[in-house]
Design brief:
Layout lengths: L7 E7 L3 H12 L6 E7 L5
Parallel strand pairs: 1-2
Amino acid sequence: MGSGIPLVSVLLPYCNASPALDAAIASIAAQTFSQWELLLIDNARHG
């Protein structure tokens, strides 16, 4: 298990979520499982 390759990918889509985004990231980072990656997806609509 110590290979450094994430076993879990967490997808966090957001749109205009700046008030809640810090709390969401902190919550994910506080998990006890350590082999994960966090992918933030900016779902802003342009145009």
